[in-house]
Design brief:
By secondary structure, the chain is an alpha/beta fold. 42% of the residues lie in helices and 14% in strands. It has helices at residues 19-30, 60-74, 105-133, 144-148, 154-174, 197-206, 211-218, 232-243; strands at residues 10-14, 34-39, 50-54, 79-82, 136-141, 179-186, 254-257. Helix 3 (105-133) packs parallel to helix 5. One of its GO terms (molecular function) is oxidoreductase activity, acting on the CH-OH group of donors, NAD or NADP as acceptor.
Length: 264
């Protein structure tokens, strides 16, 4: 993929130690990008083009330290991938009463902090660098649920809808300074280590299913025209393209990477 001409560029990927983030980190490293994995813990992937900086995206001081270290090391920043996010399934109201699976202040605040405030902080501090350079790309990882909503995941879906709005608004603000802002909304993806038993138990409860029934649903792709779940690398491919100058006139949009799946 030399046509993307990414070798030597500098990128920060938040939440790059697992899931989609790790797939993005791997692909960018393979394309010669100097990648900074900004996560709470270091992942298993190791590459000469990769460094890890422990980062809490919801904490301004932590984000400032990371961005300052990147500029100190490399002198520039070409791309920020806002990938870090958490999903805690919970119902707005639970017929069983105030259960562990009803949305509460703690769950709400935690998801808002990481998924929404984290995107704001990283984008503001990295955006300042990019504006001073007159160039740069911010890529916001959204979700199909941010476009369609999701049963048992209303708060998560709402944070992703907010991210979509950030993408549209910031593209209007930063485009004047030479900085592009784009989004990616993955649909149903292949299994990753993020599907913990705790997550599956909570989601199954909110949908009045057993964990076994929930797992059976992963393989039911009848609503996806391409007839299969997405691969993590297919999201990484879009990140690489959006980061490159091949996408130099693409800004303010969120691309739904979901195999053609839509509301209908």
């Amino acid at each position: 993929m030399e046509w993307l001409n990414l070798k030597g560029k500098i990128a920060i990927v938040t939440g790059g130690s697992s899931g989609i983030g790790q797939a993005v980190v791997k692909e960018l490293c393979q394309l010669g990008v100097k990648v900074v994995n900004a996560d709470l813990s270091e992942g298993s992937f190791i590459d000469e083009n990769l460094i890890f900086l422990e980062t809490n995206v919801a904490d301004r001081q932590s984000v400032e330290q990371t961005v300052n270290e990147v500029i100190k090391r490399y002198g520039k920043l070409d791309c920020l991938v806002n990938n870090a996010g958490i999903n805690i399934p919970a119902l707005l109201t639970d017929k069983q009463g105030n259960s562990d699976y009803e949305l509460n202040d703690r769950i709400f605040d935690k998801m808002i902090d990481v998924n929404q405030k984290g995107v704001f902080l990283m984008s503001q501090l990295c955006g300042r660098v990019m504006v001073s350079q007159g160039t740069g790309v911010i890529i916001n990882m959204s979700s199909e649920s941010g476009l369609e909503g999701s049963e048992g995941q209303s708060c998560y879906a709402a944070t992703k809808a907010a991210v979509n709005s950030f993408t549209r608004s910031w593209s209007k603000e930063l485009g004047k300074q030479g900085v592009r802002v784009v989004g990616i909304a993955p649909g149903i993806m292949e299994e990753t280590g993020l599907r913990t038993i705790e997550y599956e138990t909570a989601l199954a409860y909110t949908r009045d299913k057993t964990v076994e029934e929930l797992r059976q649903g992963y393989s039911q792709t009848g609503t996806i025209p391409l007839g299969r779940s997405g691969k993590l690398v297919e999201v990484a491919d879009v990140v690489a393209y959006f980061m490159s100058d091949r996408a130099s006139y693409v800004s303010g949009v969120t691309l739904n990477v979901a195999g053609g799946k839509t509301r209908g």
